[in-house]
Amino acid sequence: MNSSSTRINYSALALVSTWTGVLVVFSFWMSRQAYHWLPVQASTAAPLVDGLFSFETALATFVFFGVISVMAWVVIFNRAEKYDMSDAEPIEGNTRLEIIWTVIPALIVFGIAFYSVRVNQKLAVLGPMEHIHRGDPIEEVGGFLGDRLPAEQVEVTARQWSWQFNYPAAKVSSTELHLPVDKPVTFRLVSEDVIHGFYVPAFRLKQDIIPGRAINLNLTPTREGRYRLRDSMYSGTWFSTNQADVVVESEAEYNSWLLQAASQPLQPGLSDAVAEYKQRQAEGARGWPTVVPAPAPMVNVPGSNQLPHNG
């Protein structure tokens, strides 16, 4: 065997090692930057989800720029000479290379899967699911978290296109969600018509609300502020208006709000879809056909959707 064919090119090895080190440092830096791309962290679930996102960002950065680096090296240093019309050297296969490019992606996928499973085990946010029939009364039901901690109970009703939040213990209803900070809460999610999505970006949790089922979702807010609940499932014409404010406040402020809300008479809650539909009808209902929005729910506190929020 020709000894020159097995000679190690230390210059190339040093260059590849140095560049790999640069990619590792850059990928770590990108993983730190990924935290700044997301809304503020406002629940116990947020750091776990953000950590997973940061990890995936680092891996994606390393793989992407690693592949681009190999492509650039080949294009710059291994291209054919001008006017070279000869065929490339025939290669039957390289078992070692095939093993490498099979094992490395497999390890990456297994790493992501392992991390994701660990995060989901720590979250443990989804409680039991029960089948319901339309028109059945909504009963107060303890969730998965409620079996271990005294969680606040909030009934969430989604419809086309408004949200309604009921507090059974205080006999209060609102179209603005209020929560005490650092206190576990169990949501009982119900849809009156189609599939909706309960999603608060600052909480990092999303749960589909399926007609005919009541789904318990558990979380703990950790940061005071005003956030935005959005419908994450397309549900028709005024889907973009199906939003509500989420106010996380101190326990004292929360209890004061409940007492004040309980003294208020029922009145129509917020529903931008109803207002826009009436305006459209007044203008002659030109354009596309649409489902008639459900009437605005009758609540104690309509709240406001015009105030600035944190995410």
TrEMBL record:
- Molecular function per GO: copper ion binding; cytochrome-c oxidase activity
**InterPro entries given for it?**
CcO_II, CcO_II-like_C, Cupredoxin, Cyt_c_oxidase_su2_TM_dom, Cyt_c_oxidase_su2_TM_sf
| Residue ranges annotated for the Cytochrome oxidase subunit II transmembrane region profile domain, each copy included | 32-127
Q: Which SUPFAM superfamilies match?
A: Cupredoxins, Cytochrome c oxidase subunit II-like, transmembrane region
Kindly state which keywords UniProt assigns to this record, in alphabetical order: Copper, Electron transport, Membrane, Metal-binding, Respiratory chain, Translocase, Transmembrane, Transmembrane helix, Transport
Q: What Gene3D superfamilies does the database record attribute to this sequence?
A: 1.10.287.90, Cupredoxins - blue copper proteins
Q: Which GO terms describe its biological process?
A: ATP synthesis coupled electron transport
Q: Which PROSITE patterns match?
A: COX2_CUA, COX2_TM
Q: Where this protein primarily resides, as one coarse class?
A: membrane
Q: Where are the transmembrane segments?
A: 12-30, 58-78, 99-117
Q: How does this protein lie in the membrane?
A: Multi-pass membrane protein
Names of required cofactors: Cu cation
Compartment(s) of residence: Cell membrane; Membrane
Q: What class of enzyme is it?
A: translocase
> Looking at the UniProt record for this protein, which Gene Ontology cellular component terms does it annotate, in alphabetical order?
plasma membrane
Entry EC number(s): 7.1.1.9
Catalysed reaction(s)? 4 Fe(II)-[cytochrome c] + O2 + 8 H(+)(in) = 4 Fe(III)-[cytochrome c] + 2 H2O + 4 H(+)(out)
Function (record text): Subunits I and II form the functional core of the enzyme complex. Electrons originating in cytochrome c are transferred via heme a and Cu(A) to the binuclear center formed by heme a3 and Cu(B).
Q: Which family does it belong to?
A: Belongs to the cytochrome c oxidase subunit 2 family.
Record-given protein name: Cytochrome c oxidase subunit 2
Q: Which organism is it from?
A: Synechococcus lacustris str. Tous
- Which classification does the entry list for the species? Bacteria, Bacillati, Cyanobacteriota, Cyanophyceae, Synechococcales
